[in-house]
Amino acid sequence: MSLNARIILAASIVLAVFLALTGIVLDQAFRESARAAREERLQGQLYMLIAEAEVDQAGRLEMPAKLQEPRLDQPFSGLYAAIADGKGKMRWRSPSALNVELPPETTLAAGKSVFSRLPDSSGTDYFVYRMGVSWSEGKRKYAFTFSVAEDLSAFHAQLARYRRSLWGWLGAMAGLLLLAQAMLLRWGLRPLRDVAQEIRAIEAGEKEQLSGTYPAELSALTGNLNGLLLRERAQLRRYRDALGDLAHSLKTPLAVMRGALSEQQHEPESLLAATVAEETGKMQHIVDYQLQRAATAGPASPLAAPLPLRPLAEKIAASLEKVYHAKQVSLQLHIAPGLNFRGDRGDLLELLGNLLDNACKWCHARVELHAGSEAGHLALAVEDDGPGIPAQEAANILQRGVRADQSTPGQGIGLAMVASIVQAYGGEIRIGESPLGGARVVIRIPC
User: Fold this and answer.
1) What secondary structure letter does DSSP report for 104?
2) Tens of pLDDT along 304-315?
């Protein structure tokens, strides 16, 4: 999972939990507020009902034919009223309460009031507000309990509307917050994408180092990467310089020895001198071979620039056509467009140079180079119309590529060097027969 996806997922979970808790708290607060509002309204309606009531001297309760609250006059309006005497006997019911079963009446002392949620016998819940009232007529007192009840259908409908609105707005808010967070996250992670893009440009050979301006948090990273690139190039340069110095320092003493031994061939020890000269020559070839093997860079760093194959191949072909001008060699190149070699330039020159030089040396008049990409590998094939290489001799030549002490001048040393380079790159080499009649050397190197 990407860093961007992880952050968005974590933020989504936290936001969902936060909004859920917020919704629950707001829902509970609204529920309590709506319940308190119902209580206040029922209390006001009960006071209005008390104001409309009259009690005569005989203790009879009289109510007006038309009440001030219209809902109390409408059957099944959801708002009901009732009055009971001090013994709990029902003395009056509002027109809206006819044929409606209300919660059982209870008597209350004068001045005492109760607001509660009560069910009737069928299980229907009501908000009920009750108050005890005392009337004085002469020396007599009459006690009554006034009740106002409202079923919960309107209350539940109000809660449902509020919840739909609440969760709708919270959901929309969550969507907007996630969108804003995704945009901010994309903006915040843009420097990382820029670093990745610059690294791809370095891999493609379009740049040599990271050159963008980055936040302080990434400056250390980009600085370290640039330092790594510089150290890699400097180390490779020092390695090659050291090998070059070694080659020059070894070749000069060997040349002096060979010259001195050559002068001694006219002396009685000429046979010994000839033998030493021959062995010195072999040493020279072995030193050349081992130095070339040591100088093989091997697979390129992922940050190294790819090398276009065609320009180098054309340069080598032009040089060989001049060298073998007397043979009138026809050297044909068949190279796929845009084909690159991921490795060291010197290794590529050594590969192509040895293969083409060997083919030109042994051909009659025609040499072909085929180069392309096959299943993630760079494929090179060099063919000629010469006498070819017998299967047993081909095996020996490649064996010399492993056993450097058996390398000798001629055809073997070039192919031995090629085999050594291919082995360093983790590739494979095969020698077979060409349709042109001569040898066909095929190389496959991982890209």
Assistant:
1) P
2) 568 899 999 999
